[in-house]
Amino acid sequence: MSSDQTPTASAGSPQGSQDSTSRSERTAPDEAPQFVLPLVVRIERAAPPARTDALETAARAVLAILSDERSLGEGEWAQAIRDWQDTRIRKVVRRARGAEWRRAEALPGITVMGKSAEVRVFPPVPLDSWPKDLARLQVSGTDLDDPEPPMEADPATPVLWLNPGLEMSAGKAMAQAGHGAQLARWALPDEERASWRDAGFTLAVRTADPPHWRELTASGLPLVRDAGYTEIAPGSCTVVADHPALRD
To answer: Would you say the C-alpha torsion 202, 115, 230, 5 has a positive or negative sign?
Structure first.
């Protein structure tokens, strides 16, 4: 399961499509110091998490750190969050087990639990200056599967829809789901954002069927476009964030 840096655009647009540029097109966000949001998923050999649960847990982890009081105002993580959001929104997912996971848990961050998944998210760090206990963790090496097909999502539940035409590793998909959740949060009015937080950021991650995907990408809902640093082509649409409060 792997995810390399998956940049989307800078945090300038609070809603709608979040476009990205290819590596050959330098813009202002590229020239600023680059930061990354680290996420670590716990994958023990004997009991790996289900893929969909890992994606959903990663998305909720991103929402959790963005909403944490330490990330707001003058909180201890707030400047790091601002620095990160002023450049390209990069997330990197690494995996840990055993002692690796225990060392990761000892670092400042937030652990979010799913049904079978545990994901810890950390304050953004400079792209080239990771804490050593995170830098040594592997990005690649394990694939995740769903033992059973995910149930159909409740229409009242926010859904992060994945592009059915793209093949992504679990880590890449976890980062993309995090992007989608972040865009949905940006687009929501304050009252709806608070209601989502109070509900524990309930959400689902599902793969759309092709006709539905075409409708989603034309709907005006928040849309993630990948910059193409890893796995998929630049400009690929990866996720549509379908929150009930954002539907027409």
So the answer is: positive
